[in-house]
Amino acid sequence: MSKPKVAYIRSAALDFWSDSAELSLTTKTLDLVDHDLEIHMVSSQGEIIEAVKDADLIIDEMVPLGKSVIQHMNKAQAIISLGHGFNHIEDQAATDMGIMVANCAGYCSDEVANHTIMFLLACSKRLLQLDKLVKHGEWTSTTVKNLFPMPAVYGQTLGLVGFGNIGRHVSKKAKAFGINVKVYDPYLEPWVSQEYEVERLGSLESLGAESDYVSMHVPLNSETQNLANAALFKSMKSTGYFINTCRGSTHNESDLISALINKDIAGAALDVFEVEPTPKNNPLLLMDNVIASPHSAGTSDNSSRDGRVRLGEEAARVLMGMYPMSLVNPSVRTKIPLRNPAKSL
């Protein structure tokens, strides 16, 4: 019996692994199962199709997999994606083909949550403005008073849009600062909100109206694209801040720019943008009340290691006849033979 074929696809625009230890983080667990691994540096749709068409398993390092590619997958049991987001994979097309899609959910939850709290505190304490003042030699009580109102963080309200893995981490960390947490998530079970002691709200606009900070924690899909738009920003307090560490297209950038220009909200902190890298002339980068980082919220030494380890573990589970731990298209279960539950490796 031939060994299952594993295709690891990576963009040719990236440097090939300069350190074999990086790849070995993935293969260490994957090597528990007999397989033939082929690494493909791809730069076109044709190259992607050639790489995946006869593979039993695809490991995807952020290479776009649309319907036209997925329909060429003749044998694939699963697509395992490096990272938390999976919007670069057309998961419904995979479901239709009976292909499981898994991500590495959880590997960077703490890092993204920490980044979110960092943004919140930086907004609340006017960090960028204070830093600029000191560096320009302005150090007087009058100068600082010009930044008021500056309410204490304790007792303020953080509104979370989405309450999955990362949102729950953010909630725990925010509560340590004495921050009240409210949530808008139409898919949230009531017992989860009770367990985490957060208040569920029925609409995005009510969340905006009751929050001092609104933070996005949703996957990017047809339901969440442009979810944060003019209606949300109009509902928010003029002293409120908007934070996004998930995906740029979950907020409408033009609406956000207008809200900031019109002073509908006090400011924003963004790790993600509609176009990445965002152009240097993006108006958001020219605003003193906007904090920006380069889609780096989940980045750390630990998360870079853990993501690649998780990638190998999920691939090994599939080859061992298990479901992956983080199946993002659970409805595919009705289209494939029964598999064993996922377990730790």
Give an overview in words:
This protein has 345 residues and is α/β, with parallel strands linked by helices. The protein folds into two domains: 5-107 and 300-335, Rossmann fold; 109-292, NAD(P)-binding Rossmann-like Domain (Rossmann fold, 3-Layer(aba) Sandwich), CATH 3.40.50. 34% of the residues lie in helices and 15% in strands. It is built from 13 helices and twelve strands. It has helices at residues 20-30, 45-52, 67-70, 91-96, 109-124, 127-135, 141-145, 165-176, 190-196, 204-210, 230-235, 253-261, 301-319; strands spanning 5-11, 36-42, 57-61, 78-81, 100-102, 157-161, 180-184, 199-200, 213-216, 241-244, 267-270, 290-292. Strands 8-7-6-9-10-11-12 form a seven-stranded parallel β-sheet, sandwiched between helices. The protein has a five-stranded parallel β-sheet with strand order 2-1-3-4-5, with helices on both faces. Strand 9 (213-216), helix 11 (230-235) and strand 10 (241-244) form a beta-alpha-beta unit. The longest helix is centred in the last third of the chain and has 19 residues, at 301-319. It starts with a strand and ends in a 26-residue tail after the last helix.
Please state the overall shape, judged from the principal axes of the Cα atoms. Answer: elongated
Q: Major sheet: order of its strands?
A: 8-7-6-9-10-11-12
CATH architecture assignment of the largest domain:
3-Layer(aba) Sandwich
Uncertain segments: none
CATH class of the largest domain: Alpha Beta
Helix content: 25-40%
How many helical elements? 13
CATH superfamily annotation of the largest domain: NAD(P)-binding Rossmann-like Domain
How much β-strand is present in the residues? 15-25%
Mean pLDDT: 94
What is the SS-derived class? alpha/beta
